Automatic annotation (TrEMBL):
Signal peptide residues on this chain, from the entry's feature table: 1-28
Lineage: Bacteria, Bacillati, Actinomycetota, Actinomycetes, Micrococcales
Record has NAD as a keyword: no
Basic and acidic residues bias (residue ranges): 119-139
Organism encoding this protein: Brevibacterium sediminis
Name used for this protein in its record: Secreted protein
Key words of the record: Membrane, Signal, Transmembrane, Transmembrane helix
Region annotation Disordered: where it falls in the sequence: 105-156, 282-329
Length: 770
């Protein structure tokens, strides 16, 4: 093998390097492009939204849902020109289908294409100017019997960025609809409002009206069920007074419910949370004249007060507090008045008691918080206490979520009836059948449960109309759909069941119930009457794979929250009440309403945060280091702060890290809610040391609470006594030393010369002279 020349090797190396450099961006491109893909999609969506805004549109504000031979068809709406160009010489017309739309397929076809239609009224012939001209040109002997009118707020131009209103009014006599054969001619007709100019059709809006020349046939019974609930997370599972007050105000969700009570056959599904929240909110407050005992944290007498600055208003806090108390009392009376009126009116309706928080029971089954399902159902007794005739044996699984195992569990827990959708238990006749039926809940078919089947078509259309900002068109279609159902079997009496959305009531609820209940071919009926009637055979239970549920992530989060707080609740004197508050709060995050809004994860996060705040609300006040004398038995003061809403029962345990300090547990103490308490911990210093110490709060069940504190205890000898002894010893030493020196010196010596002279004198002197 010949060696490769160096020149060729260099050439190949350079070529490979160039290829790699060129290929690098190619391989990297998908990675770089992957991140902004979502942003690109969002940008496209925004672009589509902007494109839709930059157009001419028609919104229907009123459509007469049905009309008899003496009525008038009214179609009112608004034209919006959001473009930058004016609509010159607009043409406006009202079209009606030439045939009745007496089947769901024909309704759908009209919405898609508006085939086979005729002009009922238009701007050219029925506008204000046209009517003025016709009145001016008509002969004195002529008889203009046409009463069609089209009133508009524009003339020849709809300027850019402006809106214009219009109203069509067409008497029944001018609709050219047959009256001679009411049974064959009655039924829904499609309506289309069309706006055009020289360029062609610019905008259109669809609606329906039902021609009803008083045909004679049996009515369709429809039972409406309105949930009375306020979904949303709240501390302790009770709705705050301020939120209740907003809900009963004009236009609020509970105010809407109160207005619905005028429909006598309307059934109510009442959430126990509503009842419990009102009962708590309207309870008489604690008398304000009772003396309040407070503990001075610094041990002071509390008798001294500081004078306010010169010129400052006196009793400012007192005035503010008084105003707040007055406002709170007015709110309490307002809530009490509404609640008493509601209870009195609701007594006349069929009442179904929901489980607490109206939870998605299917999502709870088989999880760590499965017990919340049985707890929620037991809480239905709250509704029973207020409404003795309330049904507590009707379960309402989320539409599409029922299974045989689930229904069997519901029956075992005391439910005799389950509300299902006709998607799970369909009709076997191909038409809309009676709502009352039965379904088997065991494989052998021996065990059954009564079922109340909701009409999915009417239920979904009601929800869509309620969700619309301008529901007139959707409501007219809802009424037309009920007419189609009536046309299926006009001489057969059927009972249909239509529940309203499982959410807080909104403004469109009242209009939806009114439109559906007032149709002359509809007979509003109570739920109890449907259940008392015979059951209709239906298909076997079907399981929907994509049934909505509370997401697994949210359920797991709630289970973890409950597990973390369950032991902590042993600190409260009334543990049962603490557990009830916790379970109620967690149930608010399992509400069936979250299957619509997909907000269960947000609620679960709020519940976790609230739980952490509650566990942090019981803590020890941080203290400074302590100097302790060895050999002395004494106490160290510890301050307990209870910011929780309930009384706590606990004791303090001090754990020294080294043996130079000995500590004992305190006696069990009870700390009232929203108060502090000082507890003395017995201790004894054994030897000199700086001892790090941990202070714990311990419950009666030996549960150590999470909030601990550390304290440095400096153990030292008894310096005062030792100092006195040292000083005394020093004085004694000085005294002894002086004494020894004194003794060691002895008597003073006489000089020798003086001593010799003295001796000589003694010998020579006369003794008598001495």
């Amino acid at each position: 093998m010949k060696p490769i020349p160096i020149r060729r090797l260099r050439f190949l190396t350079a070529l490979l390097s160039t290829l790699l450099l060129l290929a690098g961006p190619v391989f990297a491109y998908p990675l770089l492009d992957a991140a902004p893909a979502a942003a690109s999609t969002d940008a496209n969506t925004d672009a589509d939204t902007d494109a839709k805004k930059d157009e001419v549109s028609i919104t229907l504000d009123e459509v007469t849902p049905w009309i008899d031979d003496k009525g008038t068809l009214t179609v009112r709406g608004t034209i919006s020109n959001t473009t930058k160009k004016a609509v010159e010489k607009p043409s406006l017309s009202l079209q009606m289908s030439t045939r009745k739309l007496d089947s769901e397929s024909r309704l759908t076809a009209w919405k898609q294409g508006q085939a086979q239609h005729r002009t009922v009224a238009d701007l050219e012939h029925d506008g204000t100017e046209a009517r003025k001209k016709a009145k001016k040109d008509k002969d004195a002997d002529s008889d203009d019997s046409s009463g069609i009118t089209l009133d508009t707020s524009f003339d020849d131009t709809i300027d850019p960025g402006t809106s214009a209103e219009f109203t069509f009014r067409v008497p029944a006599d001018d609709l050219d609809l047959s009256k001679s054969s009411p049974v064959s001619s009655w039924g829904p007709r499609g309506l289309a409002v069309q706006l055009g100019d020289d360029t062609g059709l610019r905008a259109s809006a669809l609606g329906f009206t039902t021609w009803y020349p008083d045909p004679e046939f049996d009515q369709t019974k429809i039972s409406l069920l309105a949930p009375v609930t306020l979904p949303g997370h709240s501390e302790g599972g009770l709705i705050p007074s301020d939120r209740l007050d907003a809900a009963i105000a004009e236009g609020g969700s509970l105010d809407t419910i109160a207005k619905l009570l005028e429909h006598k056959e309307l059934a109510l599904a009442i959430d126990p949370r509503i009842i419990a929240s009102f009962e708590a909110a309207i309870a008489e407050p604690t008398p304000a004249d009772a003396p309040e005992e407070t503990e001075e944290p610094d041990g002071g007498s509390g008798e001294e007060t500081q004078s306010p600055p010169v010129g400052a208003p006196e009793n400012d806090d007192a005035d503010s507090s008084g105003a707040e108390l007055e406002a709170a009392e007015k709110q309490r009376k307002r809530l009490d008045s509404w609640y008493q009126d509601f209870v009195e009116a609701a007594q006349k309706h069929t009442v179904v008691a929901l489980p607490y928080g109206d939870p998605d029971l299917s999502a709870l089954r088989g999880t760590k918080i499965d017990r919340l399902s049985s707890f929620a159902q037991k809480q239905r007794e709250i509704v029973k206490d207020v409404f003795p005739d309330a049904r507590t044996d009707i379960a309402w699984p989320v539409a599409g979520s029922a299974t045989k195992n689930g229904l069997r569990a519901l029956k075992k827990s005391g439910n005799s009836t389950a509300i299902l959708s006709d998607g799970q238990q369909p009709s076997i006749t191909g038409i809309h059948d009676d709502a009352h039926s039965q379904t088997t809940i065991t494989d052998d078919g021996e065990s059954t449960i009564d079922t109340l089947i909701s009409d999915t078509k009417l239920t979904d259309m009601s929800a869509e109309a309620i969700a619309e900002d301008n529901p007139a068109g959707a409501l007219s279609e809802l009424v037309a759909e009920s007419a189609v159902i009536q046309s299926e079997a006009p001489y057969r009496t059927r009972s249909l069941f239509v529940p309203l959305p499982r959410a807080a009531a909104s403004a469109n609820w009242e209009q939806t119930v009114e439109e559906l209940s007032s149709a002359p071919w509809i007979a509003p009926t109570g739920v109890d009457k449907i259940l008392d009637s015979g059951s209709e055979a239906r298909g076997l239970l079907r399981t929907e794979a994509d049934a909505p549920h509370i997401r697994k992530r949210a359920v797991e989060s709630l289970a973890m929250t409950r597990e973390n707080q369950a032991d902590f609740n042993s600190v409260f004197s009334d543990r049962d009440s603490a557990d009830i508050r916790l379970d109620r709060e967690l149930l608010t995050c399992t509400s069936a309403a979250w299957t619509l809004g997909r907000n269960a994860n947000i609620c679960a996060g709020q519940a976790r945060e609230q739980s952490e705040n509650l566990m942090d609300s019981l803590h020890l006040r941080k203290g400074s280091s302590v100097l302790l004398v060895t050999g002395e038995k004494t106490t160290i003061p510890v301050t307990i702060v209870n910011d929780s809403p309930a009384e706590a029962t606990l004791r303090i345990r001090m754990k020294p890290n080294t043996p130079q300090l000995r500590a004992q547990e305190t006696e069990t103490v009870k700390v009232p809610a929203a108060e502090t308490m000082r507890v003395d911990v017995p201790v004894e210093g054994l030897a000199n040391a700086d001892v790090p110490t941990t202070i714990e709060m311990v419950t009666a069940d030996e549960v150590v609470l999470p909030k601990q504190e550390s304290l440095m205890v400096r153990v030292r000898a008894d310096w005062e006594n030792i100092g006195t002894a040292v000083i005394g010893l020093a004085l004694a030493v000085v005294f002894v030393i002086g004494l020894i020196k004194t003794i060691s010196r002895g008597r003073p010596k006489i000089p020798e010369q003086q001593l010799a002279d003295a001796m000589a004198r003694a010998k020579t002197d006369d003794p008598e002279k001495r």
